[in-house]
Fold this protein.
Amino acid sequence: MIAIAFLFICMLCDCFKSRRRLETEILVLRHQLNVLQQRAPRRLHLRWADRALFIWLYRRCPRILDAVTIVRPETVVRWHRMGFAAYWRWKSRPRGGRPRIGKEVRDLIRRMSIENPLWGAPKIHGELLKLAIDVAQSTVSIYMVPRQGRPLQTWKIFLRNHVEEIASIDLFVVPTIAFRQLFAFLVLGHRRRQLLWYAVTQNPTAEWLARQITEAFPWETAPKYLICDNDRAFGGAFKARVRAMGIRDRPTSFRSPWQNGYAERLIRSVRHECTDHLIAFNAEHLRRILAKYAIYYNEVRTHVSLGKDAPCRRSIERFGDVVAHPILGGLHHRYARI
């Protein structure tokens, strides 16, 4: 402030000086400035008052940039823009009005908009009113999460809504004692996570898979939807047979095994609990192994997603002594009371 006051005093005094004297003083001041610039550090740190003075002079006469030497002209312009933004930020500060809503309500609005992609601001606002939360509908629209092209129905919602009408299929490789590869084909029903069908082959062609899907769903037991990956074996004759049975095939996206998560989890269980601990001699031997595991998986093994029950429901036995029945040579056991 002292520097600004001194500047105004000098301006008043200049009104009483002759033009020749003013021009001489300007030359002397410029020479002094050049001498100081030669000894001063390359970058000067100006106070905010000095910057404000440059901004004020620039607003009065933008052509003063030609006379500025201690800072670059673009620096003065940048200071002016920063001052402009700060001024209007101060002018636009909130003054009264409705109080801001709390973080808990904001989080609830975001949660509702994420969990209900079909809901707009009016629907969420109505739901909040039923929870005794009084906010404006315009406020709700501010805190909603933008859709950004998000699909209205995710795979998770689709699977949950059609779980009783969905089956999934997949193939996995089992090595033999002779270092050959066998392909195991599995069919899983989503409603009770039941292993519906299994088969083994050395060459899973589309014709062979079409025959297996026919045997897996005889008569009127075919599901409405069948989830499979994009393997070439699941094309051609296989797709034709599936559609002839009235089944809608739902191939997963490229490199998206999570979209067939139930079948992938089944294969992981078969490997971890069975085939990783046994050596298959040939296709017939592997079929016998899978037959025993299928009985264990469907009738004995408890599933977390089924409330610790088996796909084929197990009754609770309350009385008698506990005995163990070995399965797969003692790899697993079934416990019962007698």
